[in-house]
Amino acid sequence: MSPSRAQATTALALLLLATTACTAGEHASTPVSHSLPVSRQARQLRLPLDAYASTVAENHVVEDAQDILMRRCMNGRGMEWKALPPVDAQDTEPPNLRRYGADEAAAVLYGYHPSPDPPSVVRRNRAWDERESLPAEVQRTAYGPSGKGGCRKTAQHQLVGDTAPPDYRAFNQLTGTALETSRRAPEVRDALRRWHTCMAKSGFDYPDPFAAAGSERWETAEPTAAERATAREDVACQKSAKLVTVWAAAETRIQRRLIQQNSGRLHEAKVRKDRWLAAARRVLNRDGG
Question: Domain range holding 275?
């Protein structure tokens, strides 16, 4: 994995680990839709701590700006540098997708399996893969012998000077704490009991939506009819119990308290993130369109 991709993947993995429930493994041949199936509720769900982490789209902005500067550096050394293809706006996952369990739009089609990547995401991932097979000389020029130098280091310095990369440790810690704390809130426990009762009426015995989504039964190459039926009932019971609405309100209250208690750490992290993003947008506006 190229260093720049490794950095982006690590940050995103930490973010997703803190904000999403477990789902079943990859599936092989389900047809790819033209955009991600995501409900309006998931698209609109925002939590206070979101301001302190980068969205997938914001990560792409930084990557694209660095690409412009990388290409300039590589061209100056007599080498080509192919820019990453863009990802369509509707193809990026919202930050809190599946935070409280399965999402209705994807559950109907894929059960608890992850939705297939849309074409624009597939193209960008393929471009990352192609970079990992570049000739050794090109890789050294791009990343240096250590993987932290070369044109990548030059581009990063041109982008933000000595500003360190965004640090999401505070966000990841606090968003995980908020999720677990809100889960124990009386109103959320009541909503989970309503969800459990609703599921039990249809013959399902799961303690919560995370247990339903993480069942070993769904570790199949493709979503089964039983999986889809379970997921459909799951999201129907979420609606009946008003689970997402209740849980999001409880967690919003808890996150606001955590932000007040950790304002210093979070402010520093946000300043760094905003500097990178603003610098990237300046490069794109000036040189990339």
Answer: 3-46+54-95+113-288
Using CB atoms within 10 A of its CB, is residue 146 exposed (0-12), middle (13-18) or buried (19+)?
Answer: exposed
Q: How far apart are CA 89 and CA 111, in angstroms?
A: 24
Cβ(156)–Cβ(7) under 8 Å?
no
**Residue 167 Rama label (left phi>0; alpha psi -120 to 50; beta):** beta
C-alpha span between 83 and 4 (Å, rounded): 13
Q: Is residue 104 part of a domain?
A: no
Residue 175 lies in a domain: yes
The reply to whether 108 falls in a domain is no
Asked if the structure places residue 254 within a domain, the reply is: yes
- Which DSSP string corresponds to 143-201? H-TTSS-HHHHHHHHHHHTTPPPP--HHHHHHHHHHHHHHHTSHHHHHHHHHHHHHHHH
| Token output for 197 | 């009762």
Query: Angle of helix 150-160 relative to helix 136-143, nearest 10 degrees?
Result: 30
How is residue 275 written in tokens? 């500097």
Q: What is the DSSP string of 45-102?
A: ---GGGGGS--HHHHHHHHHHHHHHHHHHHHHTT---PPPPP--GGGSPPTTTTTTS-
Residuewise pLDDT in 10s, the chain (289 residues): 555 554 444 343 333 333 333 333 333 334 444 578 999 999 999 999 999 999 999 999 999 999 999 999 999 999 999 999 999 999 999 999 999 999 999 999 999 999 999 999 999 999 999 999 999 999 999 999 988 899 999 999 999 999 988 889 999 999 999 999 999 999 999 999 999 999 999 999 999 999 999 999 999 999 999 999 999 999 999 999 999 999 999 999 999 999 999 999 999 999 999 999 999 999 999 986 5
When divided into structural domains, the chain yields a total of 1
